[in-house]
UniProtKB/TrEMBL annotation:
It comes from Buddleja alternifolia. Residues 35-150, 162-304, 389-529 form the Plastocyanin-like domain. The keyword Signal applies. It comes from the Eukaryota. This is L-ascorbate oxidase. Gene3D superfamilies: Cupredoxins - blue copper proteins. Residues 1-25 form the signal peptide. InterPro entries: Cu-oxidase-like_N (IPR011707), Cu-oxidase_2nd (IPR001117), Cu-oxidase_C (IPR011706), Cu-oxidase_fam (IPR045087), Cupredoxin (IPR008972), CuRO_1_AAO-like (IPR034273), CuRO_2_AO-like (IPR034271). The keyword Disulfide bond does not apply.
Amino acid sequence: MASMRGGMMMIGAALLLCLSGGALAEDPYLFFEWNVTYGTIAPLGIPQQGILINGQFPGPKINCTSNNNIVVNVFNHLDEPFLLTWSGIQHRKNSWQDGTLGTMCPIMPGTNFTYQFQVKDQIGSFFYFPTTALHRAAGGMGMLQVHSRNLIPVPFDTPVDEFALLIGDWYNKGHKTLRKILDSGHTIRRPDGIQINGNSGKVGDSTAQPLFTMEPGKTYRYRVCNVGLRTSVNFRLQGHTLKLVEMEGSHTVQNVYDSLDIHVGQCMSVLVTADQAPKDYYLVVSSRFFKKVMSSVAVIHYTNGKGPASPELPPPPPENSAGIAWSINQFRSFRWNLTASAARPNPQGSYHYGNINITRTIKLVNSHYLVDGKLRFGINGVSHVDGETPVKLAEHFGVSNKVFSYDLVKDEPPQAQGDKVVLAPSVVNATFRNFVEIIFENQEKTIQTWSLDGYSFFAVGIEPGSWSPEKRKNYNVLDAVSRHTIQVYPNSWAAVLTTLDNAGMWNLRSEMRERAYLGQQLYFSVVSPARSLRDEYNMPTTQQLCGIVQGLPMPPPYTI
Ligand SMILES: *[C@@H]1O[C@H](CO)[C@@H](O)[C@H](O)[C@H]1NC(C)=O
Ligand SMILES: *[C@@H]1O[C@H](CO)[C@@H](O)[C@H](O)[C@H]1NC(C)=O
Ligand SMILES: *[C@@H]1O[C@H](CO)[C@@H](O)[C@H](O)[C@H]1NC(C)=O
Ligand SMILES: *[C@@H]1O[C@H](CO)[C@@H](O)[C@H](O)[C@H]1NC(C)=O
Ligand SMILES: *[C@@H]1O[C@H](CO)[C@@H](O)[C@H](O)[C@H]1NC(C)=O
Ligand SMILES: *[C@@H]1O[C@H](CO)[C@@H](O)[C@H](O)[C@H]1NC(C)=O
């Protein structure tokens, strides 16, 4: 097969599959071949070793449609094991391909592995990134966008074009140096600056190339993800407003904003209309909740543009406690559009999550610890450690007792936690199809972001202070956005609701990469008692085996 630009091959015509009732068109396949290599990048102007995919940083965009089958053959040309995750892609019945170290063996240097998964019943903006060894500090990430199928109504006119914007903080040290700092027990501290699609522009730089070009009068979709390691950012476009239309797979009520906060790991889509005088404009991305604001700009050009962007930048939102109040208010303005469809024809609002009884409440408190003088992070007194054997494979082969103990993390944080922490693989036994409430309580002084694989959840509430059951009456039980990440402000809590109806082993992690690397994550083991193919796919025959499951007899396959 000939390789097309970007290493993508596509079978245009759908394969036909004959079933007893007649012929069904199988969902189309998109094939990608990715070479992962080191290469020199300079997001903040200082050359350093980066991680490229097919020579690109950010990596190639995956542009697909709901229910497409995605096949990515990843060749690891690095000198370290490597693994990619597809953040926000739910992998229905298929945690085998989730790309976290609890579900898969890493791709060893000099070898390749082919991911295969379906973007089943999803639309929206997501990104992929490496889960191994702080590799995200060096690149390896890219946009993954899922379009609605034809005939499923989209609640806005088709934009003339779509722009992918991967923004976030950046460290000049490189991932190996940063990892040494963490391994020696220290924090990587504050980042060196802000990058915008691999660059960082300064106001008044007359040599800057435009990042995007818009035709006057036309409307564009900007898909924006914060791919940084720890910093919440705010983005805004001089002279233009941002109409929010989508957030991590949900169509939102289309409010118009001057600027938007986006926290680490989050994605959203805004529509921008080129309705201003034809000249250049600065897109501004600035850090949030740091004493000293860091920012970068990129030039947005009009096709008929004459003249440079004005040096007067739109102001950032307030900082300190006023800034947090501003940001919480903005969070509360994000609403699910109940009448709009997402990936299926029925309106999003036909799922009345507010009427479902909560079957389990799990309250998770993040903390940091010193263990033998070294920094660790944890959840409810447990700091996760990835072992040689992915916990999913240990469970599947029936040897979990040799690899981990279930439920070290309890549904309530321990009283008077102090500095006590357990270092071990952290797996919570969850009951298939339970409707759970997860409370994230942040008693630390820095903002947190959490991300859950395998599901989206309803982000029903964020408030300052401590959570208690009475707070439930403040939840948004009508039109909270269904998404897969949530920020938690300092000394605040956030509550999310979800149905654990996707069997598999699913990572819940801090999106702050140093925290996840030093243990602030866990896995939900969601086992279908039926052991049925209706609930979970069989382990792919191509699955790599490692650790103690190598050479063990294959467990019996699931049946219908
Ligand atoms: C990947 O690298 C190999 C050589 O190692 C080359 O043959 C192939 O064309 C590359 N593929 C892409 C998509 O760049
Ligand atoms: C992306 O996918 C959509 C829908 O499948 C298609 O209309 C569009 O042309 C694609 N864009 C690119 C750049 O491939
Ligand atoms: C590695 O790549 C080769 C060549 O494309 C392919 O035939 C093979 O299936 C791949 N191996 C894995 C484990 O994906
Ligand atoms: C919600 O979606 C509908 C499409 O069903 C659209 O007509 C409407 O404008 C959207 N409402 C808001 C407030 O964004
Ligand atoms: C929820 O719980 C209430 C009280 O325990 C009960 O009356 C109601 O039937 C339950 N609703 C559902 C949908 O199970
Ligand atoms: C997990 O919980 C279920 C009940 O929800 C129970 O049947 C099962 O034995 C538990 N599994 C483990 C390994 O504790």
